[in-house]
Amino acid sequence: QVQLVESGGGLVQPGGSLRLSCVASGGTFSDYFVAWFRQAPGKEREFVARISWSGQSSSHAASVKGRFTITRDNTKNTAYLQMNSLKPEDTAVYYCAAGRDYDTRPQSYNYWGQGTQVTVSS
C-alpha cells in the first residue's frame, strides 16, 4: 500500500512559478508510474503529466507543455511538478497518483494523494 503526500501549492501571481512535491511511503516507489492530475471547481479531473518508473520517459498535457515539467527522484521517493509561467486557468487542486500503467486516465492509478491547492491570481 503506497501513501502519497503532496506539498508546495499556494497562491501565486500570473507568470509566477511553483514546484509541487509528492512524497511516497509504504511501498517501492520505483515500481510505480507517477502522474499529476488537477481538478478545478465544477470540472472533471484532468491529466497534467506522467513519468515512467525510471524517469526516462514523460509526457505532458498540451495545455501545460513547455511550461510544466514532471520529474522524479527515486532515491528520495519523491516526484515533482515544476510549474512556470502560471496562468489563472491553472488554478485547481493538484493530485499526484501512482499506478502500474503508464496512462493518462485517472482510473489507471491506484494510489492518490490528498491534493494541494494552486491558485493563480493577481
Task: Provide a descriptive summary of the structure in words.
By secondary structure, this protein is an all-beta fold. It is built from no helices and eleven strands. It has strands at residues 3-7, 10-12, 18-25, 33-39, 46-51, 58-60, 68-73, 78-83, 92-99, 111-112, 116-120. The strands form two sheets. Strands 2, 4, 5, 6, 9, 10 and 11 form a seven-stranded mixed β-sheet that branches. Strands 1-3-8-7 form a four-stranded antiparallel β-sheet, with no helix packed on it. A hairpin with a 6-residue loop joins β4 (33-39) and β5. It is globular. It starts with a strand and ends with a strand. The model has no long low-confidence stretch (mean pLDDT 96).
How do the helices and strands line up, and which of them pair or pack?
Elements: E1 3-7, E2 10-12, E3 18-25, E4 33-39, E5 46-51, E6 58-60, E7 68-73, E8 78-83, E9 92-99, E10 111-112, E11 116-120
Parallel strand pairs: 2-11
Antiparallel strand pairs: 1-3, 3-8, 4-5, 4-9, 5-6, 7-8, 9-10, 9-11
